[in-house]
C-alpha cells in the first residue's frame, strides 16, 4: 500500500514561517529575541533589553557597521 499523502507532503516546506536567526544585539553582541526591535535606515535591529536599545538610539553610528 502506497501512501500518496506522504509523496505530496515531500518538498512542501513551511515558507510562511520566517525565523530570524541572526537576531543579534548590535550593542552588547548577545543573542537577542524578537521582543525589542527598532527600525533604523530600513533595517530592523534586535535588542536583548531596553537598555541596549536606548544605547543604540543615542549613538546608532557606533553600532551600525554597514
Ligand atoms: Zn544587549
User: What bound compounds does this protein have?
Assistant: zinc ion
Helix content: 10-25%
Classify the beta-strand content into a percent band: 15-25%
Strand order of the largest sheet: 1-2
Query: Total number of helical segments?
Result: 2
The span between the termini is: 57 Å
Structural class: alpha+beta
Oligomeric composition of the shown chains:
single chain
Major β-sheet profile? 2 strands, antiparallel
Radius of gyration: 19 Å
Q: List unreliable stretches of 5+ residues.
A: none
Shape: elongated
Structure description:
Helices cover 23% and strands 15% of the residues. It is an alpha+beta fold and 66 residues long. The N and C termini lie far apart (57 Å). The chain has a two-stranded antiparallel sheet. The structure holds zinc ion. The site of zinc ion has 8 residues, from loops.
Amino acid at each position: 500500500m502506497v501512501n500518496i499523502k506522504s509523496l505530496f507532503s515531500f518538498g512542501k516546506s513551511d515558507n510562511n514561517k520566517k525565523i530570524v536567526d541572526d537576531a543579534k544585539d548590535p550593542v552588547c553582541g548577545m543573542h537577542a529575541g524578537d521582543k525589542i526591535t527598532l527600525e533604523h535606515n530600513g533595517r530592523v535591529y534586535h535588542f536583548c533589553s531596553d537598555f541596549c536599545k536606548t544605547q543604540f538610539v543615542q549613538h546608532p553610528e557606533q553600532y551600525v557597521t554597514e
